[in-house]
Amino acid sequence: MGNTLLEYATRIFALSEAAERELTELAGLTAGQLLIGASATVGVYLVPAVIAQFNVLFPKVTVELTVANTEQVEQGLLAHAFGLGFIEGPYDAAVFDANVIGADEIIAVAAVGHPLAKRRFAARELADKAVILREPGSGTRAAVEDAYKRAGLSMTPLMSVSHTEAIKRMLLSGQAIAYVSSLSVAEEIARGDLVRLKVIGVDITRLLHVVWLKGRSFAPSTEAFVKLFDEQFPPRFSSVIVR
């Protein structure tokens, strides 16, 4: 009983804070706070550029960005810790409203000197290799596991790592392979530090979404941010596909 009351009290307090933020903004974007939760791929490689432009246009609106995995972003929206979320992959349409903001390809990558770097090979060959994936709850990991399952294969990673930058450092210093967003390694591939592996039998593309609680109206700052994001990355946007 006590836990239930605490949960309701916490939810009511969060709703009260959200309402106060929206009321502050009704007179225009001269004040206010925008709380954004974003999964790693979108939060690191897309959202920051939009925040920078938003700050120029609306310098008196405070923006707080929390980068987490998809599951954590959804939990934050439910707890009213975020007014807006950016996630990778599917979402619960019974709970959230969403717009597609683009598409992203997940690719297998390794250091240029890796034994598999210069030949094509079947996805099943990775079953006994040192493969690194993102942590459980990550949209990237869920997409990889789902793609392998649909192909009748399983993927048991050597390790799970919660930060893509840490994964890239591991690849550069060893003989591991990782499945990551093509957005996250475009620069390393262009420089020749990493190479996209030619995996046959599994193609992994997922949609990127902006999500919010079903039935909830946008605060002025939220509406302005979503509009600005659409201007910079129209729905036709897709990630840099590195062949």
From TrEMBL:
The entry's keywords: Transcription, Transcription regulation
Asked whether the keyword Transcription is assigned, the reply is yes
Tell me the domain of life.
Bacteria
Is the Transcription regulation keyword given for this protein? yes
Give the organism, scientific name: Caballeronia insecticola
Could you tell me what this protein is called?
Transcriptional regulator LysR family
* Xref: InterPro entries: LysR_subst-bd
Q: Enumerate the spans annotated as LysR substrate-binding domain.
A: 28-233
Task: State the family it belongs to.
Answer: Belongs to the LysR transcriptional regulatory family.
Which GO molecular-function terms appear in the entry? transcription cis-regulatory region binding
Biological process (GO) annotations held by this record are:
regulation of DNA-templated transcription
Signal peptide range in chain numbering? none
Among the Pfam families in the record, one is LysR_substrate
